[in-house]
Amino acid sequence: MAIRELKVCLLGDTGVGKSSIVCRFVQDHFDHNISPTIGASFLTKTVPCGNELHKFLIWDTAGQERFHSLAPMYYRGSAAAVIVYDITKLDSFQTLKKWVKELKEHGPEDIVVAIAGNKNDLGDIREVPTKEAKEFAESIAAIFIETSARNAVNVEELFQKISRQIPPLENAEVDSNESFKITRPPPASSRRCC
Amino acid sequence: MQHSSSDTKMAADALVQPCQMDRSGSFFKLIDTFSTEISELKQEMVQTAREPDTKLLQGLEGEVSGLFLQSSVCTGAVGVRDSGYDSLRRRMSVLDRLTHTHSVWLLLSLSDEDAKCILQPQPPGTFLVRRSSKLQKKVISLRMDDSTPVTMRDFPVKESQYTFSLEGSGISFADLFRLVAFCCISRDVLPFTLKLPEAISVAKTPSDLEEVAKLGIGFWESDLCHKRRSSVSARTAQDNTQQKLKQKSQETSPKEEVHPILCTRSPSQLEFSQSNGALCFINPLFLQTHRSDTAQTSVTPDDKTPLPDSISPFPQGTSSTSPQNSGSILRRNSNTKYTTNSRAKSASRSPPPRPPPPRTVPHRPVPPRKQNSMPSAVVSWIKTPQEKSGLLGRLGSSFSSFSPPSSPPKKISSPIPTPSSHPKRTPSQPDAEVHRCHLALEDQTIEEAVSFSLAKLSLRNTALEDGSGSPAGRERLSDISISSTSSDSLDFNHSFLLPAAGTSPSRTGRAVGDSSPEEEEEEDEDYGVSVESDQESMEPPFKSKKRHSTGAFVLRRALKGHLRKVSGVFNSLMTPEKRAIRRISEQSRDKNTYFGCLVQDYVSFLQENRGCHTSGLDLLQTLRQFMTQMKSYLLQSSELDPPIESLIPEDQIDQVLEKAMHKCILKPLKPVVEAALHDFQVRSGTWQQLKENLALAKTKQPAEMGVDGAMPPDPVAIEKIRHKFHNMSKMYSPEKKVSLLLRVCKLIYTIMEDNSGRMYGADDFLPMLTYVLAQCDMPQLDTEIQYMMELLDPSLLHGEGGYYLTSAYGAMSLIKNFQEEQAARVLSSETRNTLHQWHRRRTAQRTVPSVDDFQNYLRVALQEPGSGCTAKTLQVRPYATTEEVCHICAEKFKVSDPDSHALFLLTEETTQQLAPDTHPQKIKAELHSRPQVQPFYFVYRRIQNLNLTVPTDQLNGNSVPKCA
């Protein structure tokens, strides 16, 4: 099976649970075949998708305002961006909108955007209505899901949705800027990407 | 050691009958085989004249020399009583022959049809190696025999991480040559063994092979190919018949002399062509593994080889030899049914010869061979003996550990005189390097096997003692250490034993393959000061000392079981990569090659003219570009001989080339680049600013750097990190630098997590990294990071190394602009702009951007109807509006009526006037960040004029049109 490396960038305010989501995603069903990374800011996980394997290279970003200017470096070249907000903090949803805008302006053209409303388990102090967030996501054709990293709710699903939105390799036009290694099934053409 | 001529006559060609064996057990069987052989060898060596024992030697020789197919047409025709030089020259193994002539059979780009065309007229067994476009794999295309419906079949080659193997076979090889050489001897999963074209298999000298090789694919059409075959057509026919008869035929062929018969090799010859020395030992493996296959395919050691420099040819396959062989075979494999001599089969199968006893040592003084001026030549000179230590050499050393009194002198003696007549040793020949390569797998195997068999041997000695009448175990062992390693020449004795004593014990513990001391150093876990020093000489004394001391434990270790052996084998599989890298870097120093010229010229140019670059960035990008170009040159040109595809599995090639580039380009240039980067920083004032900001940042508390909650490293830890950074700056390889950066990051994580037990994401890590970098107060880190970012293999940029490099760069730029940060946010937009640019460049791999691609510069052209175009690079702040830019333009271009001018953005199709409140830098950044950057230009001109034509041949995105 072909392995594709997909860079995924995590954006969102500090404290919304970006790394918790990824830690949950990576640590559940721990795969011993994957060499562990040195820390939680950069994590990888390989999931099967169709006849391919998607290896997510997950780049976490610092959510503080002072690091905002570094974000382009992190999302550049990403196949997908997960923008996380905290359903109990309206501010974090406003920040999310800014990120969406920035990605539209400066992000990679075909980037898959996923919006994750985290802390779904704290429904009683919710500040961002599901409906509003969902409508916003639809308006920008983004994936939308509410998650709970703490209870492991919808975390797997989030990445499955992303996986499904990644165009299969055969259809993808020359996209050699993306970094994926191809160990191709026999009949395909032998384009090698870096 | 003395051998009667009857010894040499002994045929080792007992046919090994198939027996059912589990392939998985083959490794262990191999060990058993070795142990039997050792005892056989021992007996043979000690009791030279004893008939019952000599037969055992035959068996051993047959196996040990597995791949030394030697043509003996010459022996038969030319006469055996040559001077001794001829016989030396003639000694080429299958591997040699394959390596010399790969241009004939290694035709990677050959299509199915063309392969068929070539193979159709050839005899069965003829083969080509090519890359099947259908399978997207390398295949061995084999001419089938007439009993099968197809004329040609493709057998795919599996390339796993470091090895080549046939699909369906469990036996892997370090490179394609070894795989093919093996298949020439053993069919493994093939229907029969591969057969070298006659012209290759009977060639007497490397120059004969060169002649063949020169023809390349044309060989198959050439007279050389056809003449050979027609001249021996009678024989071929006979072979075919014999093939059908298979091992049933026991009669001796009257034409024996015509067949390629095998020259035996004395241990000295094993020495001199060390690259083969190891390979021959694989033979027992397949003897065991494939015995289960039809007898037709098993390899029969053929014995017809006269000793190199003396004995007259004698009739082959005499009835007297067969029983003896059978004896040995039976002894080796109690469950093996054996049939005697299958001359017919062996003749058509290029059977392995045996090494003769070391009686034919050339002990005349030999003129030292030419040395080229490269340091590597010295290495090879000195290292050669080590690599060459074959089984016998090892035996010598292993055995000598039992019997100190008789062990050879251990002090280092002068390099071994190599016979100048031996063509392979001429350093100027390209294949000299090839021969230096050898496979650690085999060495390792041998080493383990020898150790293991020693254990068995000591047990067996007791049992054998009265029956055989041979001397007691210990005495025998000591005898062997002398007799197997020395004959009548003292020189030889030294050359033989020295390496063995030095290397053999260490092989068991540490699979070093053929890596040079320097490379070993580089792999070292301890990235100390000496790590990348040019240690191109002998190993330091302490090393060999260590090895000597381990010698005593060979026996104990040998008993540790099979698992260890297997893992040892895997370790040693790392070697081919190093071999390839070393070859490339040797070639890079050889100005006789185009590649060598390019590299050397570039290196010396940069050393002398580092000032020609406009900035450090410019320098690094040119360097990166050069490395990338050299990589693709090596891939596309045929200058690498053998082609790298034959040494390295396809998915590894890029990595290996990258490492090789680091070694041959970055290593010599590192000091220059470092100094140049520093100069640029000092000149631009960045250095001063950086130092000030670092000093300021250092005074800040963790919280002020954005650290929230996590525990910062204490001064001791900071000191440790500084030390790691110091080591990092000593590396030339960006990859190794990055791996040290990763260690620093790991350490930071560990400290954070130790104090809290929770996992930290970027929200916590990046501020902490910034704090740590500030505390380290090492302004030189800035250029280090620049070096890594610009030179790292682009394919690594998305991985973990790329992530932390990005983080370090980000943290560093925050520190660099620490003062300004609080005041305004200009910095961050600046940084951001830079980052945009950087990532676009590195991921798009476009041509080198010019300075105006970056930061605060904007190149604007003035177009005036009268005077054509003038372009200027203006300093424009990232958030400057078009209106402001227009002001600057008016000033710079000295435009008298600024009101009638405006700033336009030109692309290939469109011209648009920019509104006064837009931001040209932002527009530029956006254009640059598009996946396919089209050429675009900022033009300052009169509003009415719309007739500007823009040439589209600009490579650089925002460069200015050249106006006539």
From TrEMBL, chain A:
CDD domains (UniProt xref): Rab5_related
Region ranges (Disordered): 174-194
Entry superkingdom: Eukaryota
Signal peptide: none
SUPFAM superfamilies per record: P-loop containing nucleoside triphosphate hydrolases
One Pfam assignment: Ras
Electron transport is among the record's keywords: no
Gene3D superfamilies: P-loop containing nucleotide triphosphate hydrolases
GO cellular component, one term: early endosome
Keywords: Cytoplasmic vesicle, Endosome, GTP-binding, Lipoprotein, Membrane, Nucleotide-binding, Prenylation
Name of the protein this chain belongs to: RAB31, member RAS oncogene family
Source organism: Pygocentrus nattereri (Red-bellied piranha)
Lineage: Eukaryota, Metazoa, Chordata, Craniata, Vertebrata
Gene it is expressed from: RAB31
Automatic annotation (TrEMBL), chain B:
Residues in Ras-associating domain copies: 854-945
Compartments (UniProt record): Cytoplasm
Keyword line: Cytoplasm, GTPase activation, SH2 domain
Biased composition (Low complexity): 397-421
GO biological processes: signal transduction; vesicle-mediated transport
Secretion signal span: none
Comp. bias intervals (Pro residues): 350-360
Every SH2 domain range: 105-198
Start-end of Acidic residues biased regions: 516-537
Gene Ontology molecular function terms on file: GTPase activator activity; guanyl-nucleotide exchange factor activity; small GTPase binding
Homology family: Belongs to the RIN (Ras interaction/interference) family.
PANTHER family linked: RAB GDP/GTP EXCHANGE FACTOR, RAS AND RAB INTERACTOR 2
Identification of the protein by name: Ras and Rab interactor 2
Organism, scientific name: Pygocentrus nattereri (Red-bellied piranha)
